Amino acid sequence: MSFPIHLVRHGQSQWNLERRVQGQSMHVPLTPLGEQQAKDAALLLADSGARVVYTSDLRRAVQTAEHIAVRLAAALILDPDLRERSLGEYEGQRCDDAFAAAGTAWEEPGWRPPGGESLHDVRIRVQRFLGRLRRDADGSPVVVVTHGETAGIVLALLRGTALGQLPPAALATLANGEVMTVPSEPGTGAWRPAYSEDPYPFFAEPDVATPLSQGVLEGVPVWLVTRYDDVRRLLADTSVSSDPLLAGPATRAVPWVQQADNPHPLVRSMVRVDPPEHTRLRKLVTKAFAPRRVEALRPRVEQIVGHLLDTMAPRGHADLIGDFALPLPFTIISELLGVPRDSRDEFAYWSNIFVGVDEDDFAHRPQALRYLTGFLETLIEHKLTRRAAATEDGDVLDVLIAARNKGDQLSARELLSIAFLLLAAGYETTASLIGNGMLALLYHPAQLAALRADPGMIEAAVEEFLRYDSPVKIAPALRFTTAEVRVAGTVIPPGETLLLFLSAANRDPGRFRCPDMLDVGRDAGGHMAFGHGVHYCLGAPLARIQGQAAFTALITRLDGLALGPGGPAWRYSFQLHSMKSLPVTFTAAR
């Protein structure tokens, strides 16, 4: 239900934020909104129809809210989730000096003083407040009185904008005493772009935080499953299908789901079929990803990583995504497919559009699909004419062509489907493992220091990166019930659509202790980043090798790693958690 929210920001927080930026100490106390300004705000709201005023329990906020509540004859509710950001202590100094001691680090959403909160922490509780507000809404307008950074985060969430721009830019849009009316739901949809940038506050909303809830995804009515045990069980449940041809009528009526009838090999890929067809394909494909073959790629992966860093290191700055995280898996995939060197630049151009590195790419995706289909068909046809030369020691396509199982082998169409799957599933997800993991380290400098001190922890750290911020938020492909399944005491009938949230499962406190904490020393075994069951990711060993090589080189060859100007830029995706860019600065290690 959508309804107006009248947002009032009190205090002189913006002035104090400017003093912090200038490096000055913060001994001037915040002052409440002047009485006259509060009365003016109440006058503006006189005809709003609001009957409830929400505020924090901060005395100055309560004073402002009381003026408004008296004028409107409205109920006044003190909500602890609207409180100011807690600074705790910073290296033993007074709370008032915490920001000054941190320099500019306080601007980063993940920076957290010891005992205090990060902006992401504040966002999670503000999201919780807004979730309750929407759940209990009767359609009537409400007034929210809050302050400083909290007001900016309320505004960002209501507008569906990115947290990375706060503070102080968003705070400047709401002056002291100004009443700003915004809808309770962002006009771009509840999952865009805030969910793309940071899905975890979404998982914290009361209606989603339950083990099972219902929602709508791009027009499809879905059941949202978030608990680790449920997600793991349903991924292996034979009553749950990956085949969209088995979707119920409500899902099949949605235009983009109707593409399931498209005979293109990309649509009818191995991740979208069930046993026994999936079993047949998997047996034929497994040889190409046998542990011995994948481990033999490690020296080549390390060589590519070294070459990329040789180019980056002298500059002192880079876009970690465009300059490193994407080129690494792309080069590996190109070599696995046997793409000729003189064709790789064009192949890279259309591959980037196909996976949607930039949002503008979606308009050109059909053209990219046509190019890649033609390119890969020609490549496969050429290899098929040399079938006698195809051996298990060649590239992946050679191995797949040579693969046989009791006389059965892959058709040209199936080879094309697997080539597309390798490109779609192994390219951006590996780049996201590297990008998301490095961003997590930059937000948690103590963890970065621990890895620098003991690079032997990197293998375990890669598993923690996969758990803490999974590249894939939702299990690949929607899942469809073909018989009754029971989740959290609810019987879901056949013909329903399930969203299995891998990211939420990986943050389930019932499975992982302190799940919202990054801990590179944690045993993150059993995480769901690669899925579970018959569709467990075939490329998981290769992704791990690339992640291990990448982080080893980054932390040993680059000193002083820090976020660059502008911070991360996130892609819109309901399925993947991936960045378009991640600017970093550094110095080459001596």
Describe the structure.
The chain is α/β, with parallel strands linked by helices. 43% of the residues are buried. The termini are far apart. The strands form five sheets. A five-stranded mixed sheet has the order 3-2-4-1-5, sandwiched between helices. Strands 6-7-13-10-8 form a five-stranded mixed sheet. Strands 9-17-14 form a three-stranded antiparallel sheet. It has a domain at 4-197: Rossmann fold (3-Layer(aba) Sandwich). A hairpin with an 8-residue loop joins strand 15 (569-570) and strand 16 (579-581). Helix 5 packs across helix 6, helix 14 (298-312) packs across helix 16 (327-337) and helix 16 (327-337) runs antiparallel to helix 20.
